[in-house]
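Chain A, query sequence.
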Amino acid sequence: MSGHCDTPRRNVPVYAADDPAGLELAIDLLRRGRLIAFPTDTVYGIGADARLPESIAEIYIVKQRPPDKAIPLLVAHPADIEPFVSHIADEARRLMDAFWPGGLTLVLPIAAGVPAIISPGPGIAVRMPDHPTPLALIRRLGAPLAATSANRSGNPDPLTAGAVIEQLGRRIELILDGGPTMGSRASTVLDMTVWPARILRTGPLTAGQLRTVIPDVVE
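Chain A, predicted structure.
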Protein backbone atom coordinates (compact mmCIF):
# COMPACT_ATOMS: atom_id res chain seq x y z
CA MET A 1 0.00 0.00 0.00
CA SER A 2 1.39 3.41 -0.90
CA GLY A 3 0.22 6.85 -1.76
CA HIS A 4 -2.22 9.22 -0.15
CA CYS A 5 -5.94 8.91 0.27
CA ASP A 6 -8.64 10.72 2.17
CA THR A 7 -11.07 8.51 4.03
CA PRO A 8 -14.64 9.02 2.83
CA ARG A 9 -15.89 9.18 6.42
CA ARG A 10 -13.44 11.75 7.83
CA ASN A 11 -11.14 14.33 6.32
CA VAL A 12 -8.00 13.18 8.10
CA PRO A 13 -5.16 12.41 5.65
CA VAL A 14 -4.12 8.76 5.61
CA TYR A 15 -0.78 7.65 4.19
CA ALA A 16 0.72 4.21 3.93
CA ALA A 17 3.26 3.77 6.71
CA ASP A 18 5.97 2.99 4.15
CA ASP A 19 5.23 6.06 2.00
CA PRO A 20 8.21 8.47 2.17
CA ALA A 21 5.94 11.45 1.53
CA GLY A 22 3.73 10.46 4.45
CA LEU A 23 6.74 10.07 6.73
CA GLU A 24 8.06 13.50 5.75
CA LEU A 25 4.69 15.10 6.38
CA ALA A 26 4.42 13.33 9.73
CA ILE A 27 7.81 14.68 10.82
CA ASP A 28 6.86 18.19 9.72
CA LEU A 29 3.60 18.01 11.64
CA LEU A 30 5.31 16.74 14.79
CA ARG A 31 7.87 19.54 14.66
CA ARG A 32 5.02 22.04 14.36
CA GLY A 33 3.36 20.65 17.46
CA ARG A 34 0.63 18.61 15.78
CA LEU A 35 -0.61 15.12 16.64
CA ILE A 36 -0.37 12.08 14.39
CA ALA A 37 -1.35 8.41 14.65
CA PHE A 38 0.77 5.44 13.63
CA PRO A 39 1.02 1.66 14.03
CA THR A 40 3.21 0.03 16.65
CA ASP A 41 3.96 -3.58 17.56
CA THR A 42 1.10 -3.52 20.08
CA VAL A 43 -1.71 -1.12 19.05
CA TYR A 44 -2.04 2.10 17.06
CA GLY A 45 -0.65 5.10 18.90
CA ILE A 46 -1.24 8.84 18.97
CA GLY A 47 1.96 10.82 19.37
CA ALA A 48 3.58 14.21 19.79
CA ASP A 49 7.14 15.51 19.96
CA ALA A 50 8.15 14.83 23.57
CA ARG A 51 9.97 18.18 23.69
CA LEU A 52 6.73 20.15 23.23
CA PRO A 53 4.60 20.27 26.40
CA GLU A 54 1.71 22.05 24.68
CA SER A 55 1.48 19.24 22.13
CA ILE A 56 1.49 16.64 24.89
CA ALA A 57 -1.31 18.53 26.61
CA GLU A 58 -3.31 18.23 23.39
CA ILE A 59 -3.12 14.42 23.62
CA TYR A 60 -5.09 14.60 26.87
CA ILE A 61 -7.74 16.75 25.20
CA VAL A 62 -8.06 14.60 22.08
CA LYS A 63 -8.24 11.34 24.04
CA GLN A 64 -10.33 12.79 26.87
CA ARG A 65 -7.65 11.28 29.07
CA PRO A 66 -7.69 11.86 32.84
CA PRO A 67 -4.94 14.36 33.76
CA ASP A 68 -3.46 12.05 36.39
CA LYS A 69 -2.60 9.38 33.80
CA ALA A 70 0.93 9.87 32.51
CA ILE A 71 1.86 9.85 28.82
CA PRO A 72 4.56 7.26 28.00
CA LEU A 73 7.61 8.00 25.89
CA LEU A 74 8.59 5.89 22.89
CA VAL A 75 12.31 5.77 22.12
CA ALA A 76 14.46 4.35 19.35
CA HIS A 77 17.43 3.49 21.59
CA PRO A 78 17.79 2.99 25.35
CA ALA A 79 20.12 6.01 25.51
CA ASP A 80 17.20 8.21 24.36
CA ILE A 81 15.61 7.98 27.81
CA GLU A 82 18.58 9.40 29.72
CA PRO A 83 17.47 13.09 29.67
CA PHE A 84 14.10 12.06 31.10
CA VAL A 85 15.09 9.75 33.96
CA SER A 86 17.11 10.36 37.10
CA HIS A 87 18.48 6.84 37.39
CA ILE A 88 18.50 3.56 35.49
CA ALA A 89 18.98 0.59 37.80
CA ASP A 90 20.94 -2.44 36.65
CA GLU A 91 17.71 -4.47 36.80
CA ALA A 92 16.06 -2.05 34.36
CA ARG A 93 19.00 -2.31 31.98
CA ARG A 94 18.75 -6.10 32.04
CA LEU A 95 15.05 -5.90 31.18
CA MET A 96 15.80 -3.53 28.30
CA ASP A 97 18.44 -5.93 26.99
CA ALA A 98 16.00 -8.84 27.20
CA PHE A 99 12.74 -7.30 25.98
CA TRP A 100 13.52 -4.13 23.98
CA PRO A 101 12.44 -3.54 21.35
CA GLY A 102 9.13 -5.05 22.35
CA GLY A 103 5.99 -4.94 24.43
CA LEU A 104 7.44 -3.84 27.78
CA THR A 105 6.96 -0.36 29.24
CA LEU A 106 9.17 0.49 32.19
CA VAL A 107 8.27 3.17 34.72
CA LEU A 108 11.55 4.70 35.89
CA PRO A 109 12.37 7.56 38.29
CA ILE A 110 11.69 10.84 36.50
CA ALA A 111 14.43 13.43 36.09
CA ALA A 112 14.14 16.86 37.65
CA GLY A 113 12.81 19.44 35.23
CA VAL A 114 10.75 17.08 33.08
CA PRO A 115 7.40 18.83 32.48
CA ALA A 116 4.63 17.52 34.72
CA ILE A 117 2.36 17.28 31.67
CA ILE A 118 4.35 14.16 30.67
CA SER A 119 4.07 12.58 34.10
CA PRO A 120 2.57 14.10 37.25
CA GLY A 121 4.12 11.44 39.48
CA PRO A 122 7.60 10.30 40.51
CA GLY A 123 8.01 7.98 37.53
CA ILE A 124 8.05 8.23 33.75
CA ALA A 125 6.95 5.41 31.44
CA VAL A 126 9.33 4.51 28.59
CA ARG A 127 9.30 1.88 25.85
CA MET A 128 11.20 0.96 22.70
CA PRO A 129 8.64 -0.40 20.19
CA ASP A 130 9.42 -3.27 17.85
CA HIS A 131 7.98 -1.62 14.75
CA PRO A 132 9.72 0.25 11.91
CA THR A 133 7.24 3.14 11.72
CA PRO A 134 7.60 4.67 15.21
CA LEU A 135 11.33 3.92 15.17
CA ALA A 136 11.70 5.81 11.88
CA LEU A 137 9.67 8.72 13.22
CA ILE A 138 11.75 8.98 16.39
CA ARG A 139 15.05 8.82 14.52
CA ARG A 140 14.01 11.38 11.92
CA LEU A 141 12.53 13.66 14.57
CA GLY A 142 15.63 13.41 16.74
CA ALA A 143 13.53 13.06 19.90
CA PRO A 144 11.29 10.57 21.68
CA LEU A 145 7.58 10.53 20.98
CA ALA A 146 5.11 11.17 23.76
CA ALA A 147 2.64 8.51 22.73
CA THR A 148 -0.24 6.42 23.96
CA SER A 149 -3.00 4.34 22.36
CA ALA A 150 -4.93 6.20 19.63
CA ASN A 151 -8.35 5.81 21.20
CA ARG A 152 -10.66 7.76 23.43
CA SER A 153 -9.92 6.89 27.04
CA GLY A 154 -11.89 3.85 28.14
CA ASN A 155 -12.60 2.67 24.60
CA PRO A 156 -11.04 -0.38 22.93
CA ASP A 157 -7.44 -0.09 21.80
CA PRO A 158 -7.30 0.49 18.01
CA LEU A 159 -5.69 -2.26 15.95
CA THR A 160 -6.25 -0.66 12.52
CA ALA A 161 -6.14 2.81 10.99
CA GLY A 162 -9.90 2.55 10.47
CA ALA A 163 -10.42 2.08 14.20
CA VAL A 164 -8.37 5.22 14.83
CA ILE A 165 -10.56 7.16 12.40
CA GLU A 166 -13.71 5.90 14.11
CA GLN A 167 -12.56 7.11 17.51
CA LEU A 168 -10.50 10.22 16.82
CA GLY A 169 -11.59 11.37 13.36
CA ARG A 170 -10.52 14.93 12.60
CA ARG A 171 -8.99 15.45 16.02
CA ILE A 172 -5.58 14.40 14.67
CA GLU A 173 -3.64 15.70 11.68
CA LEU A 174 -2.50 12.51 9.94
CA ILE A 175 -2.60 8.72 10.16
CA LEU A 176 0.17 6.42 8.97
CA ASP A 177 -1.56 3.19 7.97
CA GLY A 178 0.49 0.05 8.45
CA GLY A 179 -2.42 -2.36 8.26
CA PRO A 180 -3.56 -4.40 11.28
CA THR A 181 -1.08 -4.29 14.15
CA MET A 182 1.15 -7.26 14.85
CA GLY A 183 -0.09 -7.40 18.44
CA SER A 184 -3.55 -7.07 19.90
CA ARG A 185 -2.88 -5.69 23.39
CA ALA A 186 -1.17 -2.66 24.85
CA SER A 187 2.26 -3.24 26.39
CA THR A 188 2.98 -4.75 29.78
CA VAL A 189 3.77 -1.93 32.24
CA LEU A 190 6.27 -2.56 35.02
CA ASP A 191 6.77 0.02 37.78
CA MET A 192 10.44 0.16 38.77
CA THR A 193 10.11 3.17 41.06
CA VAL A 194 9.15 0.66 43.77
CA TRP A 195 10.78 -2.58 44.90
CA PRO A 196 9.95 -5.27 44.28
CA ALA A 197 8.98 -4.10 40.82
CA ARG A 198 5.22 -4.16 40.32
CA ILE A 199 3.20 -4.95 37.19
CA LEU A 200 0.71 -2.16 36.62
CA ARG A 201 -0.76 -3.65 33.44
CA THR A 202 -0.39 -7.11 31.96
CA GLY A 203 0.11 -7.17 28.22
CA PRO A 204 2.19 -9.28 25.84
CA LEU A 205 4.79 -10.13 28.50
CA THR A 206 3.81 -12.13 31.58
CA ALA A 207 5.13 -11.95 35.12
CA GLY A 208 6.80 -15.30 34.54
CA GLN A 209 8.73 -13.98 31.56
CA LEU A 210 9.87 -10.91 33.48
CA ARG A 211 10.98 -13.06 36.42
CA THR A 212 13.38 -14.94 34.16
CA VAL A 213 15.38 -11.69 34.08
CA ILE A 214 14.65 -10.20 37.52
CA PRO A 215 13.04 -12.53 40.09
CA ASP A 216 11.55 -9.70 42.17
CA VAL A 217 8.37 -8.93 40.21
CA VAL A 218 4.94 -8.81 41.83
CA GLU A 219 1.49 -8.56 40.27
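The first helix runs from residue 20 to 31. The CA atoms of residues 118 and 192 lie 17 Å apart.
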